[in-house]
Design a protein that fits this description.
Length: 169
Amino acid sequence: MIHTHISLILSKDSLKQANMVIEKLETRVPIEASAEKLFDIFCNKTHTIANIFPEKIQAVEIHEGEWGAERSVISWNYINDGKTCVAKEVVEGIDKENNKMTFKVIEGDLLQHYNSFKFKLQVSPKEKGSVVHWELEYEKKNYSISDPHTTLELVVEEANQVDAYLTNE
């Protein structure tokens, strides 16, 4: 069962533009793998996720920069809610000490419904295994757009698949 938390964040520009509301959808997922190993896959070996989870992640390619570096541009071909989708993201920030990173979507299917979209990942160690904290931060193009629950479910499933891969190595 996925437990989610939705909150609204008013951006600095919201005082100027009343329709600009940044929303957040987040969840925490306990996993068996160490925080360092799981973070290493998402940060430095992102391209391997297509091999680990080919049912939903068809390809992960780097367009600019290098794996594990800020400002790198990465594209994803994936299946979400039964549809083939693409996303091009820039790695906005990496904090290797805290196993934390942020991806900002700059092209693709998500931007048909959202003016902006970010994925934030943090993997925290615990006594046995670790906890993956996913946070999706987005601005809807209009109020009739639904919250991206299927996208959150996809990244949770992705983390679980990477966990299974790492614990079966």
